[in-house]
Specification:
With about 450 residues, the protein is α+β, with helices and mostly antiparallel strands. The chain has two domains: about 5-200, 2-Layer Sandwich (Alpha-Beta Plaits); about 210-435, no CATH class. The protein has helices spanning about 45-55, 60-65, 130-145, 180-185, 190-195, 255-270, 275-280, 360-375, 425-430; strands spanning about 5-15, 40, 75-80, 80, 85-95, 100-115, 120-125, 165-175, 200, 210-220, 225, 240-245, 245-250, 295-300, 300-305, 305-315, 325-335, 345-350, 395-400, 405, 410, 415. Helix 6 packs across helix 8 (about 360-375) and helix 7 (about 275-280) crosses helix 8 (about 360-375). The chain is globular and about 85 Å long. The termini are far apart.
């Protein structure tokens, strides 16, 4: 049965990170293409990401519209064709499955659609009169969730992939009770209708529940090592990529996430908190799919814009004799922020992934992330290598939780323990029941 109103929504997006959607076909980069050979975000992937958000964060009337058990979906999705595509490669370190350590001189390459790609989400909805306001409100909520990073597409989402900004939201509505509009709908190609959508919506005022974001703004006064002469050819991991035609250095989200998890493991060990707690928060990569656990912590790439690059010559030391090697040197390439310019590290936690009975686990997750970012800003934790010679130490400017600034005096390295936000520091000590004994 066809309802009276047919809505067509076109959401124009721009990729702010990278996109990974495995194709499993003949493409040399193992990315999804359509029959015309163009890279796409498949409609099934779009539907899955949006439905996951609707089911966890939206009211029941929205869930019914988008389909659940006992309710047929009134929504149709179409493949999003990618424009302005550039392929980005990232190298990773091979880990020994048995021992969990890096394999000597072994890297793997992963291919992504790079930052700056543009596409359009096309969503068609067949609505009755009573749901007209609901569908407009829900589409705005979906667009807002995409803009804020709550809805991401493709794989590697918790490692910073699949994040988009929203450029424009347009729509058109056809009344199937109107003979002229019904005839237009029947005779016109569906994808052509999306092209003439003119009415506008905005998602600027949308707030997302069940999503807590931490943003650390910091300077890099002493530099961050992006290329080390100590590494032999073929063994270094690329830390630069092309953004809008310019080569920009960046800190990969996977690196930031690894630092946070490593720091959390140190805290957990000191507090005698079980490893299962960390697995529930940060996930695991168990090769046995039945035991895999996805992370609830989402980290974004940190783009190092407006930075200064410096090359340092250093003497080379014989590792066996401990003396300098005559005539040998290494060249380090270091980036640092310029003047008052800052970089931003963004980490988010998905509250909807925690059951009501897991309130303690939710508090642990916030405590771990807060403490790691706080101490990164205080210079107690370093990023990358070269920390022994002063590289990788940040100088925090501020730390925000859902846009509310924590009263941390980064300049004098002081924390105001009376603040509500900084009470998170005491969570690990104040909980009467530990997760291990829960």
């Amino acid at each position: 049965m066809i309802n009276q109103y047919m809505y067509f929504f076109r959401i124009s997006l721009k990729l702010d990170s990278v996109l990974s959607i495995s194709g499993g076909g003949d493409d040399e980069y193992n990315l999804v293409k359509n029959g015309e050979g163009r890279y796409i975000i498949p409609s099934t992937g779009i539907a899955g990401a949006i439905k996951n958000y609707i089911n966890s964060d939206c009211p029941e009337e929205c869930v019914k519209m988008f389909g659940d058990i006992g309710h047929h979906s009134i929504v149709t999705y179409y493949d999003a064709v990618c424009e302005n595509v550039n392929i980005e490669t990232r190298k990773g370190i091979c880990i020994d499955d048995r021992y969990g350590v890096a394999e000597n001189r072994k890297l793997f390459t992963r291919y992504y659609i790079g930052q700056g790609m543009e596409c359009e989400l096309k969503i068609q909805c067949n609505i009755d009169d009573k749901n007209r306001e609901n569908i407009i409100r829900t589409i705005k909520q979906i667009a807002g969730a995409i803009k804020l990073g709550r809805i991401r597409f493709g794989s590697k989402k918790t490692d910073g992939a699949g994040v988009f900004s929203v450029k424009d939201i347009s729509y058109m509505v056809l009344d199937m009770a109107n003979d002229k509009e019904r005839k237009y709908y029947i005779e016109t190609d569906i994808l052509s209708i999306f092209k003439v959508c003119e009415d506008k919506l905005s998602c600027d005022d949308i707030k997302i529940s069940n999503w807590r974001s931490y943003v650390l703004e910091a300077k890099i006064p002493n530099g961050l090592l992006v290329k080390s002469g100590e590494r032999e050819n073929g063994a270094s991991v690329n830390m630069s990529k092309e953004i809008d035609g310019n080569a920009e250095c960046y800190i990969p989200a996977s690196t930031i996430k690894g630092i946070i998890r490593s720091y959390s493991e140190m805290i957990a060990k000191y507090m005698n908190i079980s490893n299962d707690c960390l697995v529930q928060i940060f996930g695991n990569d168990n090769t046995e799919k039945t035991n895999m656990k996805a992370s609830t912590v989402y980290v974004d790439d940190c783009i190092l814009r407006n930075t200064v690059t410096t090359r340092y010559n250093r003497i080379k030391v014989d590792r066996w004799l401990g003396s300098t090697i005559s005539g040998a040197k290494t060249v380090d390439e270091v980036v640092s922020t310029n003047g008052e310019d800052v970089v931003s590290l963004r980490v988010s936690i998905d509250r909807s992934r925690y059951a009501e009975s897991d309130e303690i686990l939710w508090k642990y997750a916030n405590a771990f992330v807060f403490l790691a970012l706080r101490d990164l800003g205080l210079g107690k934790v370093s990023i990358g290598s070269g920390n022994a010679v002063g590289y990788g130490r940040l100088e925090g400017v501020n730390l925000r939780i859902n846009d509310k600034v924590c009263p941390i005096d980064y300049k004098n390295k002081k924390v105001d323990a009376s603040s509500y936000e900084t009470e998170l520091v005491d969570i690990l000590n104040s909980l009467e029941v530990s997760y291990e004994n829960k």
